[in-house]
User: What shape does this take?
Amino acid sequence: MTEDPYVAHRTSGPILRNTLGVRMDRHAATHRLKHLAQAAGIHMPRMHPPCFATRS
Assistant: This one.
């Protein structure tokens, strides 16, 4: 496995940053990922939050 130059030897701090250089929130990161996937021709399935149904 090769190391990704953006995360290699990191011990702290954000990996995904916005144009201002601060940490991307989860909504911005998801939005950016969707646009990158679309530009690459990759279909991303819709993500659903975990189900909190209780079992009896």
About this structure: The mean pLDDT is 79. Residues 20 and 29 are 14 Å apart (CA to CA). The longest helix spans residues 26-39.
